[in-house]
């Protein structure tokens, strides 16, 4: 089995191509001449090829030696770039934070201001949002497809910070009998077609119905809030969504408070600290200092 060359050996060969001297190379690298000679001889024995022409002065590289140096230059450049990148990340001036979001509550009402505040403090760290259903966002976080995620419920054994409080509200067709009610209870919605949101509230909605010993008649499962509003506006069903997910204009739809419902916490969650990059750690520390948002 051939053992690959060490970085020190590659740099020694690079220097010898320029200087043609073991002594000058040893001085430049801060090692002894014998250490350089031994490392080159050991690698030559391992690959069965000669890298140096030792019968001439100054020393020159063989064709095989020049091939090794050609690759060494690329390797050394990559390593130097890596070291510079790591230094930048250590200083908090680079990296990327991938954020998963379960829908409009996070993507349009919570994250933009939060990301803008963070960008002012750390302009070198990039951020990207990956939006999906609540279930998909949870899976993305577990699998490592995103670094942090906006969730309606934290995941066991994951770190979580509450970033906002939200309220579930009912959506009913404007002009309907329910639109004239001051508040809406589970029984009011149980007998009509129901549009279930996929934007992170399904668990809380079903618990609300179960608390009244009833269940919704789910006819549609929809991710986008605008699509839910269109169905309710057309009389195709009622819905329950978070107030933060609603746009300012909900023409044709009445938004009603729910009876017997508590405010819902929204969290940013991430894997335990050992799994995080420097950029993610910086973002998380920033969040920890901003626990009073929302």
From TrEMBL:
Transcription regulation listed as a keyword: yes
Keyword tags: DNA-binding, Transcription, Transcription regulation
Top-level taxon in the UniProt lineage: Bacteria
A Pfam family matched in the record: LysR_substrate
PROSITE patterns assigned to the protein according to its UniProt record, in alphabetical order: HTH_LYSR
Residue ranges occupied by any HTH lysR-type domain in the UniProt entry: 5-62
One Gene Ontology CC term in the entry: cytosol
Coiled coil: none
InterPro entries linked to this entry: HTH-type_LysR_regulators (IPR050950), LysR_HTH_N (IPR000847), LysR_subst-bd (IPR005119), WH-like_DNA-bd_sf (IPR036388), WH_DNA-bd_sf (IPR036390)
Single GO MF descriptor: DNA-binding transcription factor activity
Matches recorded under PANTHER family: HTH-TYPE TRANSCRIPTIONAL REGULATOR BSDA, HTH-TYPE TRANSCRIPTIONAL REGULATOR YBHD
Family under the similarity heading: Belongs to the LysR transcriptional regulatory family.
Name of the protein in its database record: LysR family transcriptional regulator
UniProt source species: Octadecabacter arcticus 238
Species classification: Bacteria, Pseudomonadati, Pseudomonadota, Alphaproteobacteria, Rhodobacterales
